[in-house]
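tool=predict chain=A
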Amino acid sequence: MHRLWSHTLQRLSPYTPGEQAQNSDVIKLNTNEHALPPSSGAVSAGQQLDVERLRRYPDPTSRLLTKAIAKANNVSSDQVLVTNGSDEVLAFAWTAFLSDTDKVPAVPAMTYTFYPVWAKLLGQGLHQVTMNSDLSIDVEALKAWDGPVVFPNPNAPTGLSLPLETIEGLVAHNPNRLVLIDEAYFGFGAVSAAPLISQYDNLLITRSFSKSHALAGLRVGYALAHASLLEGLRRVKDSFNSYPVDAYAQCVATAAVSDSAWFAKASATVEENRAALAAGLTQLGFSVLPSQANFVLASHPEHTGIVLTEYLKTQNILVRSWSSDDLLPWVRITVGTKDQQACLLSALADYLND
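tool=predict ok
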């Protein structure tokens, strides 16, 4: 710790990203990348990018990408804000709407572990809401909270999602507080709240291209909200970095979001593989939550998630587990290809039958 560190920096506990594979023979099922390659049209668009666009600054408004996202989601362009990954949208939102002492947000107790980091760095803390016994989000407890509400749908790391009527009831319950829905795992079966943004100006949705469009290496995200609410995020963006999304990323992401045929087929493949993975784990004695994300959360009655994670690592298979009491029994496994999942299930069967 350096003597020049601020008090805020000293009390930070930074987010820890998932382990990255160092060898090509590793089966990587720990950080929820898409099982399939991205759209060939998106790859081609990147390869054909005019080098002149690399010499010049990128469009600060990501105009073409914004227009393509708006079209894909049946909203207007002024209801879209493009950023450098959805984490950037979330950081902007904390700065714009969640930084005051009377704006402490409620979040589920079991959720994305970056939220507490932003709460310490950019806000005034969090109010954690205990999960229901089935690990679903306690919506009534969120309704009872006077301040803003932040949660993913589907939730991470459970993969459980809320129906649209439940979400709308939460948004409409108190129109004078922000409801931020993190839809990082959009596109794998859960309903989106995007149809509600024109009706409710207190609703903010964040999304990423990392999962839904197989572009985790590109770092592009976006927000969907009422135009007047998004203006607050734009003020933060332009006070921090007017050029957050580079020209290459804008080009590739525009082609990706415009390829609706790829999106439909890829999403269906993930849902099919997820069902097969859950069925295989259940046959091995695991309890598997009914996920609507591109991962499953599973527990075995005789082994903790950490024990299983360490064993699978010896088999060149990466999955994710945690040491916290509430997550200790669980292991999170990304939906992979059929071959990857077959290797995983075979390795687990060998371990459990040993």
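The chain has a mean pLDDT of 95. The first helix runs from residue 7 to 10.
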